[in-house]
Design a protein that fits this description.
Number of strands: 0
Order of helices and strands: H
Oligomer: single chain
Largest sheet: none
Structural class: mainly alpha
Radius of gyration: 18 Å
Shape: rod-shaped
Length: 52
């Protein structure tokens, strides 16, 4: 994952930049939450469709 402050590459699981110490905003974490929400929504829709 790239630090938005200094541009250094960091491991994906990092929350702080190893070069400048800045907090690394994780787009993946946000993306993961969105994917989980969409998966749950689709699963619930499938349950409703199967019940009909």
């Amino acid at each position: 994952m790239k630090c938005q402050k200094c541009g250094a590459e960091n491991p994906d699981e990092s929350s702080l930049c190893s070069e400048c110490g800045a907090e690394i905003a994780s787009e993946d974490k946000t993306g993961t939450a969105e994917i989980l929400y969409e998966t749950l929504r689709l699963y619930e829709q499938l349950d409703l469709d199967a019940a009909l």
